[in-house]
Amino acid sequence: MSKSIESETLSTQIRDSLREDILAGRWAAGDKLQLVALTKHYKTSSTVIREALTRLVGDRLVVLKPNRGFFVPTLSLAEIKDITELRCVSEEFGVGLAIQRGDLAWESELIAAHHTLERTPYRESDNGELTEAWDRAHQAFHAKLLEACGVPVLIDLASTLSDLSQLYGRWAGRATRFMDRDIAQEHRDILASALDRNAEVASRLLRTHYETTLHAILKSGVEKEAAESGREKANA
Hints:
This protein has 236 residues and is mainly alpha-helical. The protein has helices spanning 3-23, 35-42, 46-58, 77-101, 104-119, 132-147, 152-171, 173-177, 183-195, 199-219, 222-235, and strands at 32-33, 63-65, 69-71.
């Protein structure tokens, strides 16, 4: 393997590790991502870390502030409203195409993705937070649902919006924990509508699924908590 390929592979691995840690809530909204600390934590060079962070800027999971460095995005309830609506509109269109174009192999893989989601522990036993394994299985199920649409740009957009939605959901975890909903049944219904090739029902269920989470985030007070935390850091 050439040095250039090795370097690209390492950069991708570090990017993926950083992405997972950001989505898992390792850092709070607005936190600065210190290059020296990241270099030590991931046991790699500052060049690799900078490349990985720059790629995550393109995914909107990291913010680059000129002359200040890299930061975790700040919270904006107006933004999550827009993200959710864009996600609903794009995935309503995408799932319609997937249902139209998906073959038996897609159906089988979708069933398998849902089975993994169903069998993956949902909450941590000690603190009630969403498990990282469930988050990954959840994203994989929704990604598989759209995969058969055959539109790469839509699939990439859906992935980015999914990451951002997951980040907000992680920050608002305490509120979503006590939501009066049966999320497992929501996924069963979405799966059934896709297998029944009912695009209208699948689209409606997806929108309700995402908007229910949005309503919990809006009620969580997570933006206020982040602002108060930011003021405390500024005054420290």
